[in-house]
Amino acid sequence: MSDKIINLGIQxxxxxxxxxxxxxxxxxxxxxxxxxxxxxVTPFETVMEGPQEKLMEIARNxxxxxxxxxxxxxxxxxxxxxxxxxxxxxxDKIGKYTK
Length: 99
Prior knowledge:
alpha+beta, Alpha-Beta Plaits, four-stranded antiparallel β-sheet, 3 helices, 4 strands, 30% strand, Thiamine-binding protein, UPF0045_domain
């Protein structure tokens, strides 16, 4: 198991005939927020920073939370940035825009 830091972007699109999609997405974001990993919520996806195995576990918990909240199904899209010999940090990419 590698402790190398990566970025994982996750977009969860819930499908429900009766429930509001934004309310369902909030359930996924709550899981990510409670995980304690560094993350950035954007209008289209949430980007997390940490070890790949941990981020994938959080992503699975987030999708399960949306289903448990009543979604009929979810579409889940992942994007990962992984470097061979160094960590990937959110700050390195967007830090100059958030100060």
